[in-house]
Amino acid sequence: MDERHPIFCTIVPPHVLDKLARAEDPTLSEPACRTLEADAAQRTRRRLTTVVGTRAALAPRGPAPDKPQRTIHDCRHGTELPGTKVRAEGDEPGKDATVNRVYAGLGATFELLLTSYGRSSLDGEGLPLIASVHYEENYGNAFWDGDQMVFGDGDGEIFLDFSIPVDVIAHELAHGLTQYTANLSYFGQPGALNESMSDVIGSLVKQYTLDQRADQADWLIGAGLLAPRITGVALRSMKEPGSAYDDDVLGKDPQPGTMDDYVRTGRDNGGVHINSGIPNHAFYLLATQLGGKAWERAGQIWFDTLTGGELAVDADFASFARLTVAAAQARFGDGEEHQAVLKAWSQVGVPTG
């Protein structure tokens, strides 16, 4: 695996936590500050382990299995990873609902990749899926650290348990899929594509588990994660970027849906969680125009683009869009799928010519 880009990826953008950390109410600001501090420590660790080699990169390889190899650990509100092993592959569900949800979410993601795209786990070789739960005290995030998944319990005021939405689990795992394939860098447009690919896979896994057609899906990322006091429905909306929340504490969802509203910023690694709304919306438009199960045609085109070997680590939206057009033609010919891809990118203002 090429690890040119030591990436630590969280589901909640740092700009959201920054805003919470400045809240006058300490019940809101203190958990956000702790979360930011924990994230900063993990980013440092990620840079160091990239130099010496990660567990995932050094794991032994054998024949690619058709069953997942899941292991769940409990941090018991500490920060030492992976924590105490509490459930292994094949173990019966226990009393901890968080453990059970994460175990199921890892399995659902593995199943979608295998049954829909013929890929055994994140690396195509059956990479074991490792997760840790109950990380830190009131930790308001979930992340992929290059080796494994980690989930916080939330603070109960802003965020609930991060294992509740299956798309959050799949989103973070999909960062591992990107790491083992296109290895998109994590700044500006390639970073936004990295985030968007995770949102796409997250939404597809959710739709797959619910057996939904594209027109039945809510296209929300993180629905069920926000606490009752928050005016909002999710972290992001692929259907209507910018509409997921509008709250006195969190602020307003800043995502644009088209290039007309592209956000230029130095924060959030150049707006990776913000401008991802544009390719997110393109995928939603494609999937709903094609109809049926989104993972079957729209998802296949995006998967082919990610894994095809032609996507540069510094790809911008336009180059990604051109490759999706080529992938649609290669997979489906010049028919409905090809035209739908062209139309979707045109609607969000990204050129494909």
Structure characterization notes:
There is one protein chain. With 353 residues, this protein is an alpha+beta fold. The chain has two domains: 9-179, Roll (Elastase, domain 1), CATH 3.10.170; 188-347, Neutral Protease Domain 2 (Neutral Protease, domain 2). The protein has helices at residues 14-21, 26-52, 55-58, 97-117, 166-179, 188-210, 268-271, 277-290, 298-307, 317-332, 336-347, and strands at 9-10, 70-74, 84-88, 129-133, 142-144, 149-151, 220-221, 236-237, 246-247, 251-252. The strands form three sheets. A six-stranded mixed β-sheet has the order 1-5-6-4-2-3, covered by helices on one side. A hairpin with a 4-residue loop joins strand 5 (142-144) and strand 6.
Give a short synopsis of this structure.
The protein is an alpha+beta fold and 353 residues long. The chain contains eleven helices and ten strands. Helix content is 43%, strand content 9%.
Q: How do the strands and helices of this protein lay out in sequence?
A:
Layout: E1 9-10, H1 14-21, H2 26-52, H3 55-58, E2 70-74, E3 84-88, H4 97-117, E4 129-133, E5 142-144, E6 149-151, H5 166-179, H6 188-210, E7 220-221, E8 236-237, E9 246-247, E10 251-252, H7 268-271, H8 277-290, H9 298-307, H10 317-332, H11 336-347
Parallel strand pairs: 2-4, 4-6
Antiparallel strand pairs: 1-5, 2-3, 5-6, 7-8, 9-10
CATH class of the largest domain: Alpha Beta
Kindly estimate the percentage of residues that lie in beta strands according to DSSP.
5-15%
Measured distance between first and last alpha carbons:
32 Å
Overall tally of domains: 2
Shape: globular
Kindly provide the radius of gyration, computed on alpha-carbon positions and rounded to a whole number of angstroms.
Answer: 19 Å
How many helical stretches? 11
CATH structural architecture of the largest domain: Roll
Task: List the secondary-structure elements in sequence, H or E.
Answer: EHHHEEHEEEHHEEEEHHHHH
For the largest beta sheet, what order do the strands appear in spatially? Answer: 1-5-6-4-2-3
The parts where pLDDT drops under 50 for at least 5 residues are 1-6, 48-60
Query: What is the count of β-strands?
Result: 10
The average pLDDT score comes to: 93
SS-based class: alpha+beta
